[in-house]
Design goal:
Layout (H helix, E strand, L loop, with lengths): L2 H20 L5 H23 L2 H32 L19 H8 L7 H15 L7 H18 L1
Helix pairs in contact: 1-2, 4-6, 5-6
């Protein structure tokens, strides 16, 4: 990139920051959004003029294709992260995790149920999750064990 373009972008960024600083605090969020949009448009114009825009398009297309192909993995990763917090993927050894007893609230969360659910609701939720998470059907044995433990915890306490 030529020094002239860098100087122009730097000047625009400095002017934008001074403009945002002069705006009242309650309107700065919208002004920052406008500044980011203008900066994005300026970058697109520069990439178009220099002939580098097709590379950005190819990168975006590749990212979209990868997301479509692996979106199920992203959903499972988000599910695991939400369900187990920071326990998964830590520096712990596989056998060093302490086994803890599930509380009723945790078991309800695992099965996606609410307080006051019936025995039939527990069994139905367990059956639906096991159809998705069972290791014989391409699922994860750890998650299946958690679902089984949640069912046992709830059925033990409900009877």
């Amino acid at each position: 990139m030529s020094p002239v373009v860098i100087i122009i972008l730097g000047t625009l960024l400095l002017a934008g920051m001074l403009w945002i600083r002069a705006i009242p605090a309650h309107r700065r969020g919208f002004a920052l959004f406008k500044l980011l949009i203008l900066l994005l448009v300026a970058i697109i114009v520069i990439l178009t003029v220099t002939g580098r825009l097709p590379w950005i398009g190819a990168l975006l297309a590749g990212a979209i294709l990868l997301y479509k192909k692996y979106s199920a993995g992203f959903k499972v990763a988000a599910f695991v992260r939400r369900m187990f917090g920071n326990q998964v993927g830590g520096n712990q050894q596989p056998g060093s995790q302490k086994h803890h007893q599930l509380t009723r609230q945790d078991a309800l969360k695992v099965l996606g149920l609410e307080d006051g659910c019936t025995k039939e609701d527990i069994i139905q939720a367990h059956r639906q999750l096991m159809q998705k998470l069972h290791p014989d059907h391409g699922g994860n044995s750890f998650l299946a064990a958690q679902v089984n433990e949640a069912r046992e915890c709830l059925l033990k306490k409900s009877s």
